[in-house]
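To illustrate this point, what follows is a protein record of this kind.

___
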Amino acid sequence: MRVAFAGTPEFAAVALADLLAAGFTVPLVLTQPDRPAGRGMKLTPSPVKALALQHGIPVAQPRSLRLDGKFPEEAAAGRAALDAAGADVLVVAAYGLILPAWVLAHPRLGCLNIHGSLLPRWRGAAPIHRAIEAGDAETGIAIMQMDEGLDTGAVIAQHAEPIRTEDTTATLHDRLAALGGRLMVSVLQRAELGDALAAQPQPSAGVCYAHKIEKAESTIDWALPAAQIERRMRAFDPFPGASFQWQGESVKLWQARVVALQAPAVAGTVVQVSSDGLVIACGQDALQLTQVQRPGGKRQPVSALLQARPVEVGHVLGAAA
């Protein structure tokens, strides 16, 4: 089976590596254009492109696949590349571009998407982040037959994955990436054996939209329940991080645990300072902060922050010093 592939980040590169290891012929890879990265802002290929080049696979990087869009020449070149590839199916994983109708109808078996949630839960751009933030007990991978809607296609296969109490987006991402590659390989191997790719339409109930993570969401609102802040902290690890103002600095919070609030206090009040951590009153309960990061520094125990910038019990974060 000839499997064209469209994807960009590490999540997609894991799936491409699994397809290659399983012996599928990959005649073409579509990925996003190189982006500036690092301190020198040097143009850097995506993880998918880097892997494709290692294996000598042709790569196309159109900025759009819309033939009537802003980059019609690049879209036409992308179409020519797909025509030349002669693929039976296009596997899509976190590609980052909308696929127009001509792409969806192009391969013999259509376009199959590796999606990081159990559909219809968490359609959209950030399903892993939003599942952790919402406190879901589980998530998973769905293999979906793509249509023109946003993650609305019929589901061919799904596999659940528990969300652990300590999971961050980074840790859950890695497990789901591995699961996605394995599940897609299984689906395509069944298709090679002649099994029909039976797909079930998604139910209309239970649909949630996983909005893209905005940097503005990273600022901690201490008036929220401590449990909600703790989940958001894990959901925003590694990006964009959950941050708060500490004596004029924007400090990122990487580890904390929910503790009982021993006496009523205004949200954002420092209620305990010790070697075990820093306890901040929240809208409900409190958070014991244990790992933070100052601007330009590394992740470190909160004791290091207190040594550099000590504070007294009763100080309210955000209030005048």
Notes: The first helix runs from residue 10 to 21. The CA atoms of residues 246 and 317 lie 7 Å apart. The longest strand covers residues 249-259.
